[in-house]
Amino acid sequence: MLLEPDQTTAQGEWNYRRRESRIHPLVLKAGLKAFSQTLHHEVLHVTQSCSGGGVTRPPEVISFDSPPSHRVNAILRRPPYAGLSQGVLDLEREAFEQQDQSALVRELLKQFCLP
């Protein structure tokens, strides 16, 4: 949905309880690259839910093999991420680290969410 996320400073969000991804309309206005990154980021959260048992399940980290980049660490120190639990930060870190890899995002979606 192109709809403001519930969290006021977020560009997008995945709500597994409602099976709903929201992307702030301003992201689309920021250009195709910003929209694609945000969409991939939210799709990764969907795959995290699927890997945890299905789209109505809480997301779980799929794989957390490499140390986070300095860029991602800097993002996670700012709102809306600052102060979140380590578990949520791990989910966000994984999504940020992989959101630019469109082929990987597609593969993870097929692997975890499609029969």
Main attributes?
globular; mainly alpha; single chain; 115 residues; two-stranded antiparallel sheet
Percentage beta strand: 5-15%
Percent helix, as a range, is: 40-55%
Classification by helices and strands: mainly alpha
Q: Helix count, per DSSP?
A: 5
Distance between the termini: 24 Å
Q: State the strand order across the main sheet.
A: 1-2
Shape: globular
Estimated radius of gyration:
13 Å
Stretches where pLDDT falls below 50 for ≥5 residues? none
Number of strands: 2
Report the order of strands and helices.
Answer: EEHHHHH
Largest beta-sheet details: 2 strands, antiparallel
Q: What does this 3D model show about the protein?
A:
- With 115 residues, the protein is mostly helical.
- It is 50% helix and 7% strand.
- The protein contains 5 helices and 2 strands, in the order E-E-H-H-H-H-H.
- Helix 2 packs parallel to helix 5 (102-113).
- The two termini are 24 Å apart.
Brief description of this entry?
The chain is mainly alpha-helical and 115 residues long. Helix content is 50%, strand content 7%.
